[in-house]
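Re: the 207-residue chain
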Amino acid sequence: MEESSSAEPPVTNSIEEIDPDGDVVFQFPDGSKIQVSSKALSLGSPVFKTMFRPNFAEGSKLQQGKPCQVELDDDVIAMTTLCNILHHRNKNVPGAHSGSSLMQLAIITDKYDCLEAISHYSHLTFTNLLKSKILVNDIGPLLLAALLLDEPIAFQRTSRELVYASGGIDVSEMFGSELLGVDDTIKALLPEGLIGTNFLGLKEPYS
């Protein structure tokens, strides 16, 4: 195998052992790998439970006692956080998030149907995050994260900040503003009819 040229990004072969005895290794495009337990993932995610059944390639390997390597295109940091939560490795889970990192976690939580498994963590994270002023660039990502993680109070608070940050501009126009972090990707994931909604008159959140 030829060595990568200096112009190419470095690829790491190191494995983060979330479960050193795990029977599954997730591999990401940048070469990152995490070793996990199919049982732990299956308990927290119906999607993973289905993936690891015998009628799927991954599950067939596991049933034969063979380790299983699965290629994922998900955000590495978000997936690592999710797997740490599902494996109850609380000391390895971030105590704080930016709007963007929490949004990435929310996206894969929704993708793998893990909402119930991480609900306590997501609520605590939002509670701590919303004790301080929301940064303008975090409004869009936090709005989507609150929606996907089913955090209605956080959604109210972020929605109010969205209105306040508009400075009197129509909310529908604000959703095209990169400054607010509400790009086309986020808009595509928000419910139809949300844009242009008046969020004023909401109760004080996280008091």
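The beta strands are 15-17, 24-27, 33-36, 68-71.
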